């Protein structure tokens, strides 16, 4: 798709076509460009499949110690088995470990963070990569959040802070956190991108979902959560000068996230997607390159380029409101 992509970039330089479906040909090669990561400790959430797996693969290739943070231990162990075989084949010094993490349950999130801190005193890179996409809109987390908002946004917000703060105190170097968002953040509802009545279960939420309709509701809720990823990244970058927090759109990638799509929607989507290996490029660039040091609070898009999010993600009033909301939600689990 390289020739077509470059043509479309010239013809349509500022559209979804040019930076999502047909971005310009990549000049970044993770196997060539990711530096040696010996001594670095990394967590990749949702690394048992898809973009997370490909990200972990490149990190262990460059000798990092990588925690595969997933809810399903069986799937995680299988991913680790395959990655260990890859490490052996390539004769690298990369290490792998499992961290049980269920982002849809804040009790489990806190437990996972505590378990990690009992094992490690540093965390150099955190990829907030796990997520759910376009699931049935009536699904909720254990703490009654919309499943996509609770998993993609609230769970990651609680998980990331303790280990990153400890790491900076221990090493004196800025850890980096990558928030895997999506171009679908443009599907977020309304003027601000956050429909507050839908974040938690209840009658108000039910009425709004009925008003939107099933298919529309699923996409709006997903877009809202992906906008939340960008907002969270900016919030953390502003609040904590000791870390580098960056959000990104990985590209239109064929992954397990599309498992809830059906029929014609699934077929059309599959025609427009890139191989999963491409999906790791942008977040690896942001997390490991020298350029990444200056990308705090920025938004990236494929392939390995500085991008520009929807203007609603840049609204300081929305950022402040989301910050206050998230702080209030995780307060019972912090401290």
TrEMBL record:
Transmembrane segments: none
Keywords: NADP, Oxidoreductase
Gene Ontology molecular functions: oxidoreductase activity
UniProt cross-references to Pfam families, sorted A to Z: adh_short
InterPro entries noted in UniProt: NAD(P)-bd_dom_sf, SDR_fam
Sequence similarity: Belongs to the short-chain dehydrogenases/reductases (SDR) family.
Protein name (Swiss-Prot/TrEMBL): BY PROTMAP: gi|472585895|gb|EMS23437.1| short-chain dehydrogenase/reductase SDR family protein [Rhodosporidium toruloides NP11] gi|647395706|emb|CDR37345.1| RHTO0S02e13718g1_1 [Rhodosporidium torul...
Species whose genome carries this gene: Rhodotorula toruloides (Yeast)
């Amino acid at each position: 798709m390289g020739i077509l992509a470059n043509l479309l970039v010239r013809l349509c330089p500022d559209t979804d076509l040019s930076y999502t479906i047909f971005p310009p040909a990549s000049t970044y090669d993770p196997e060539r460009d990711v530096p040696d990561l010996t001594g670095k400790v990394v967590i990749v959430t949702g690394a048992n499949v898809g973009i997370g797996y490909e990200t972990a693969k490149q990190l262990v290739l460059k000798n990092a110690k990588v925690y595969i943070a997933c809810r399903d231990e069986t799937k995680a162990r299988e991913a680790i088995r395959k990655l260990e075989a890859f490490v052996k084949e390539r004769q690298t010094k990369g290490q792998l470990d499992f961290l049980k993490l269920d982002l849809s349950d804040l009790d489990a999130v806190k437990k996972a963070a505590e378990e990690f801190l009992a094992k490690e005193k540093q965390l150099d890179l955190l990829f907030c990569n796990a997520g759910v996409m376009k699931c049935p809109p009536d699904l909720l987390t254990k703490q009654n959040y919309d499943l996509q908002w609770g998993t993609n946004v609230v769970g990651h917000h609680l998980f990331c802070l303790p280990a990153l703060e400890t790491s900076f105190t221990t090493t004196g170097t800025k850890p980096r956190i990558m928030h895997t968002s999506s171009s679908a953040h443009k599907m977020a509802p309304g003027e601000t991108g956050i429909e507050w009545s839908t974040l938690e279960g209840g009658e108000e939420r039910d009425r709004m979902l009925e008003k939107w309709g099933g298919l529309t509701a699923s996409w709006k809720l997903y877009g809202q959560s992906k906008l939340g990823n960008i907002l969270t990244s900016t919030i953390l970058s502003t609040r904590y000068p000791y870390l580098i927090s960056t959000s990104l759109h990985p590209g239109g990638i064929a992954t397990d996230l599309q498992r809830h799509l059906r029929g014609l929607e699934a077929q059309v989507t599959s025609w427009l997607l890139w191989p999963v290996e491409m999906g790791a490029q942008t977040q690896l660039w942001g997390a490991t390159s020298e350029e990444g040091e200056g990308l705090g609070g920025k938004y990236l898009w494929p392939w390995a380029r500085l991008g520009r999010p929807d203007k609603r993600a840049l609204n300081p009033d929305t950022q402040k409101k989301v910050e206050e909301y998230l702080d209030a939600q995780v307060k019972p689990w912090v401290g």
